[in-house]
Design brief:
This protein is mainly α. It has helices at 6-12, 14-23, 26-37, 43-64, 114-127, and strands at 78-83, 90-96.
């Protein structure tokens, strides 16, 4: 019969070790493991094994956890600024909340044709002197 490694014994006793660690120091846990469970470890090895086991368990749970797909993430509020390429004043500045499916809170706001605005900006830029923005 193949001899089991200390870590495989530790893995089987992990729940017991965690319960013992609540009430005892690592020195006490090491003594109890040696006396009752025939697992001889040093406190350094116990610390190392606890770290290693927890890390492996965490990596495994992250890799197999599909419950996170049920979590809804609320989008962040973004700020958009449209700038006249020939000037430095903002043409329009507004906050956009992607989570808001209702109509605008302010009914007096007029509908903005973004495509037309973009085309106008492109036309103004094309008719300009084509200098770098840093040269202006």
């Amino acid at each position: 019969m193949a001899k089991r490694t200390k870590f495989s014994k530790f893995r089987d006793l992990y729940e017991v070790i965690e319960e013992l660690a609540v009430s005892y120091t690592y020195e006490g846990v090491v003594e109890i493991l040696a006396e009752r469970h025939d697992l001889v470890l040093t406190t350094g090895t116990l610390t190392n094994y606890l770290y290693r086991y927890r890390k492996e368990s965490k990596d495994l749970s992250v890799a197999t956890d599909n419950s996170s797909s049920n979590i809804e993430v609320e989008p962040k509020v973004k700020k958009q600024i449209f700038v006249d390429l020939k000037g430095s004043e903002p043409i329009q500045e507004n906050d956009i909340n992607n989570n808001d499916d209702s109509e605008s809170d302010n009914q007096d706001d007029e509908e903005i044709d973004h495509d037309a605005l973009l085309e106008e900006m492109k036309r103004k830029f094309a008719n300009g002197s084509r200098k770098s923005l840093l040269d202006r």
